[in-house]
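To fix ideas at the outset, we first show an illustrative case, written as a sequence plus integers encoding its fold:
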Amino acid sequence: MITPDFVVSFAAEGLKMALLIAGPMLGFGLVIGVAVSVFQAVTSIQELTLTFIPKILAVMLSILIFFPWMIEMMINYTAKIIINIPMYVQ
């Protein structure tokens, strides 16, 4: 039987997985964004495109680096959900 506790734990686990998968990309974007902002403040360059291009490249690089790990995490999570379907239905 599906209880409110089960629904909350199921949703929390899904959100945790989403944050784990998005974390490396967000972290790379954050670090590069802060570095570019400090560079702009020091050099007084106020070019708007200077902030976007390094962040986009950093996120793309992080996707390339962490893609195997992200796929493994998603496959394990999905397999766990599929294996436990009989328990969820009871």
Summary: The helical segments are 4-43, 49-83, 85-89. Residues 10-85 form one domain. The chain has one domain: 10-85.
